[in-house]
Amino acid sequence: AKGRGRCNYQVFTEFMAEQLNERLELEHALQRALELEQFSLHYQSQVDIRTGQTVGVETLLRWHLPGTGNISPTRFIDIAEESELILPIGEWVLRKACEDGVLLQQRYGTPCVVAVNLSPRQLMQGNLVTVVAEALNDSGLSPELLELEITENIFMHHAEELQLTLQRIRELGVRIAIDDFGTGYSSLSYITRFPIDRIKIDLSFVQNMLTDPNCRAVTNAVIAMAHGLGVDVVAEGVETREQFEYLGQQNCTHGQGFLFARPQPLEQLLLDDPTLSQF
Ligand code: C2E
Ligand code: CA
Ligand code: CA
Ligand code: CA
């Protein structure tokens, strides 16, 4: 058993070294990605469940690394966050999304909210409100058409600092959404104390709600809570017509997921008619 333990130990360290190496390589490549213009944005439609109309899009970052291919944001956002690279990258995303948002309004002719993901470090940066205000100013996008998505974990450690920042963002006229709702560790009380416009039910609940009674209970409770608070509620990860119909019965206001649309480049999105239900 001893020998075996040593063997496992070696395998483990080798694996660790490989991971570390890969991570350092990624971080190094990430450092240059902005100047090499390897980032692009995809947009995923958000649909009004009652009318089937596209009323918003979520901005999703894409990284194309030559020789490696497309790297998922789940693999590099954490690295960007830890190395503070998320600040310049996040600002680039915000500015580009606002610019694209203006084109989207022109094409659609109906208001379409552009949602942008913000990482905790961006929320803690001192000049976030200025960065947001400048992105709006320079692009000409109406503030009420910009929505910032934040995850609830941040309320656990930084609720005080966040209060003023979110208040000032709201004063700009920008909307605030809570992303991945139900997966964080924070208490619910923040939800009554912060200026929130929208709650996004995490896809893990939505995708299991028809087969798992617990996921169904959470989904129903979040929808009811959102109605009680007078905020929109978006179900994430809607993939089937059955899920869509169930959410409609529960009076969920909005849906997002592969059933409606995949994340796609702006050029493709501009070809869509937002008033036609293509799903
Ligand atoms: P998220 O904010 O929860 O974004 C939704 C994710 O779910 C996206 O993954 C989207 O492609 C995926 N998705 C949408 N509909 C469906 C569906 O019906 N089924 C399934 N299985 N998945 C669906 P993506 O694009 O890989 O992004 C992953 C995460 O990376 C995002 O999760 C977000 O946390 C982060 N992220 C992406 N772009 C940015 C960004 O610009 N800034 C920051 N800070 N984070 C970002
Ligand atoms: Ca999001
Ligand atoms: Ca989410
Ligand atoms: Ca997520």
TrEMBL record:
Q: Which domain of life is it from?
A: Bacteria
Residue ranges occupied by any EAL domain in the UniProt entry: 23-277
Annotated protein name in UniProt: EAL domain-containing protein
Shown residues in whole-protein numbering = 428 to 706 of 714
